[in-house]
Amino acid sequence: MDIQTLAAAQRAHFQTGATLTLPARREALQTLRREILAREGEITAALAADLNKSPAESYMCEVGMTLAELSFAIRNLPRWMKDRRRPTPLAQFPARSLLVSQPYGVALVMSPWNYPFLLAMTPLIGAIAAGNCCVVKPSAYSPAASAVIRDIITACFPPEYVAVVEGGRAENNTLLDQKFDYVFFTGGVAVGREVMTKAAARLTPVTLELGGKSPCIVDATAKLDLAAKRIVFGKLLNCGQTCVAPDYLLADSRIKDELLSHIRKWIETLYGQDPLDNQGYVRMVNEKHFRRVMSLIDPGKVVFGGGGDPASLKIQPTILDNVSPEDPVMGEEIFGPLLPVLTFDRIQQARDFVNSRPRPLALYLFSEDRAVQEDFLRRVPFGGGCINDTVIHLATSHLPFGGVGDSGMGGYHGRASFNTFSHRKSVVKKSTWLDLPVRYPPYTPEKEKLLRLFLR
After folding, report:
1. Tell me, what's the pLDDT at 259?
2. Among residues 113, 110, 112, 109, which one has the least CA distance to residue 49?
């Protein structure tokens, strides 16, 4: 089925109403969950082939999180689907006010290569839960994961309900030339702009999950050894190929050297003396990204690591000290295992530095000072983040995940996913047993008095 025919078939299927009922949605989610459980070995093998992910990391960051999101949606779907009562103004008596959630129709989910299974399935779960038909477009950079996603969805659903389109740029452009009712894109800022431009031509609403340079700030009150351990975890998860990875470190100049000593210790503790020899250490997705990340390493500023192996596409965890804001490594999202280090003398300098740059997808603050914590929460715009930890804010179905400004728009996970793929209609159900005359002409002084009584 070509892309144009597929989009038309899904639109026709949606119009039948087959996706709308609670039993249909719940059965679709349960079918998807069963298939993922049955094919866990295939998923793990695909992630190893594309990125050299270990079985444990694959389960923790992709399969397990997908299963948890499915379980959460299945359990809560009846409550999400219920019409939500809202207060009715006295001026509209007698009536009831409701919010009614309705699926948009046919959704397009475009997913990236860095977490290829999770970031295709999680928005799909929201689209199905909300009652939509959906086309999923995995990244061509993760072909093994793309194939297993295709096989799972083909086994679960007819193509007029949920389908996978594989391919590269040509297929992306063809998909974006179709009329979808919602587009959900995860990827880089440049492609995100193209997606939004195409969607705008058709007035199609979008969610953009992008990225950017997420700062990690450590002040003098932080528990340095624990901070270092958690920074290393967040930075080197998936070898830094994580949209919410700490992209650069802002450290108080008084504790910087001690902090870097702890970071070096934890890299060696968690990944070995040379992580290039660690069989479970994730590699760069392809040669293009390997060369791009290696080009950002300034040998004169390397204080740890700095090497790479072109044969395995692995890059050592690398700390770059005495970095300036003008250095190439500070000019783009790194998406690799490099940690540039800058310093500040007063915490306000760190806050002002972050605020002078594009709004980040994530922010991480390590501080025991509650006043500093509150200052960053209230005065620094960012998509989401953690106090005294990294990346774990996205590992919950109870919090929406998304960006702000250059790092994206819209959010998902849990109920937020259901809401993202639903239009919430405002409805007033008016009773017919009484019709108050105050709103109808002619407008007499008595009616005006009543209006002023009701509306103030």
Report:
1. 98
2. 113
Which residue among 61, 156, 239, 243 is the active-site one? Answer: 243
Q: Which of 39, 15, 402 is nearest to 181 (CA)?
A: 15
Exposure on the CB side of residue 190, measured as CA atoms within 13 A: 2
- pLDDT tens string 140-176: 999 999 999 999 999 999 999 999 999 999 999 999 9
51 vs 19, 44, 132, 192, 334, CA distance in Å? 35, 11, 31, 23, 17
Residue with tokens 């086309």: 135
Count CA within 13 A, CB hemisphere, residue 57.
22
| Residue that has been written with the tokens 């195409």 in this structure | 198
Is residue 450 included in any domain, yes or no?
A: no
- The torsion defined by the Cα of 86, 89, 93 and 98, in degrees rounded to 10, comes to -20
Among 209, 216, 239, 333, the one annotated catalytic: 209
Both 221 and 204 in a single domain? no
Per the annotation, the verdict on 386 as an active-site residue is: no
Say whether both 318 and 204 belong to one domain: no
Classify strands 248-252 and 338-344 as parallel, antiparallel or unpaired: parallel
Same domain (yes/no): 257, 355 = yes
Given a cut of 90, whether residue 297 has pLDDT beyond it is yes
Share of the chain above pLDDT 70, in %: 100
Tell me, yes or no, whether 325 and 251 share the same domain.
yes
| Span 231-261, pLDDT tens digits | 999 999 999 999 999 999 999 999 999 999 9
Range of the domain at 279: 215-402
Report yes or no: 98 and 84 within 8 Å, Cβ to Cβ: yes
Known catalytic membership, residue 243:
yes
